[in-house]
Design goal:
Blueprint lengths: L2 H8 L5 E5 L5 E6 L3 E6 L4 E7 L27 E2 L24 E7 L5 E8 L2 H6 L4 E9 L3 E9 L5 E3 L1 E3 L2 E3 L6 E4 L5 E4 L5 E4 L4 E2 L4 E6 L4 E6 L4 E8 L3 E6 L1 H7 L11 E8 L5 E3 L4 E11 L1
Antiparallel strand pairs: 1-2, 2-3, 3-4, 5-11, 6-7, 7-8, 8-9, 9-23, 10-22, 11-21, 12-21, 13-16, 13-18, 14-15, 14-17, 17-20, 18-19, 19-23, 20-21
């Protein structure tokens, strides 16, 4: 992508600038009176969001993250689509689908009257995507940067037959210390414990992380809260379009094994993901669209 052309077409003076990022991926740097953000056009992935009033970034990105074509960037808000997790058909296709390891297109940028900035990225089916997933589609991510970070993942079925998807906004939140974090809002729900052979278990009270956690929560409410005592803040998560949420932290052993994580990175992030996962499968009729929406707000 030509940065000069992107700036000429979609740049907004003093607010939206296209720059060369790591791995020479084009980045979108957003600065407004309310917040700053950094978005990678590769993966359609938000890498940073920090309100002007916040002392720390909302998002975590590993210092060891890959910035190579075909690889996923470890951190920020990766987009898992049109399937979450391993290839559901067992054909050897990439885990978490087609979206997080390809270059997206810049569809639009806009300075809103509210002082917020809106960026829309997307991509549609090609001969290459149809070999992996034989459906006609347009996928867009709408990102609004203001006092809160608002994200919408919009799937349009441009074909003549319905198709099914699972998906996730696989968000990595920066935290001060994993041992001082609690996730509220899931008390009384059940979860699929992927660390324990997929057994279904009840959640009692807040989630605290003392070992590897990889859980798909079912029948989730629209509001969750990550309480981060070490950074003295609460992250409020409000979502629509999902019945499931994933909570993930790799803990010690997996952090050491993952080359794109530092050995102790598990202490610095928690993933609380807005998902349509497991049995929360979405059918998108021909000519229709489906929205997965989430907002993140930082509160003291």
């Amino acid at each position: 992508m030509d940065l000069a052309q992107l700036n000429n077409t979609h740049g907004i003076s003093g607010q939206v600038e296209f720059i060369a990022g790591k791995g020479d991926f084009p980045y979108i740097k957003v600065t407004n009176a309310k917040a700053t953000a950094l978005i990678s056009v590769y993966g359609g992935q938000i890498l940073s969001f920090q309100p002007q009033s916040a002392s720390h970034d909302l998002l975590f990105v590993s210092e060891n993250a890959y910035y190579k074509s075909g690889k996923a960037i470890k951190g920020g808000v990766p987009v898992c689509w049109p399937w979450f997790g391993p290839d559901p058909e067992g054909k050897g296709r990439p885990s978490h689908g087609l979206a997080r390891n390809r270059l997206w297109q810049v569809l639009s940028t806009e300075a809103l009257p509210s002082g917020e900035t809106k960026v829309i990225l997307g991509f549609s089916d090609t001969e290459e995507t149809r070999e992996l997933w034989p459906n006609a589609f347009e996928l867009a991510i709408e990102i609004t940067i203001g006092d809160v970070l608002a994200i919408a993942l919009v799937t349009k079925n441009t074909g003549e037959q319905p198709f099914d998807i699972t998906q996730a906004l696989h968000t990595y939140f920066t935290i001060g210390d994993i041992t001082q974090v609690k996730v509220f809002g899931l008390d009384g729900t059940t979860y699929i414990d992927k660390v324990d052979e997929g057994k279904v278990k009840p959640q009692s009270g807040a989630i605290e992380v003392t070992s590897e956690v990889d859980r798909i929560y079912q029948g989730v409410p629209s509001e969750l809260v990550v309480e981060d005592a070490a950074l003295d803040r609460r992250i409020q998560i409000t979502s629509t379009g999902n019945k499931t949420a994933v909570v993930w932290n790799p803990w010690t052993e997996i952090s050491v094994k993952m080359a794109d994580l530092q050995d102790d990175d598990y202490t610095r992030f928690i993933c609380v993901e807005t998902t349509n996962a497991a049995e929360d499968v979405v059918t998108v009729p021909a000519g229709s669209e489906y929205r997965l929406d989430v907002t993140y707000a930082i509160a003291a």
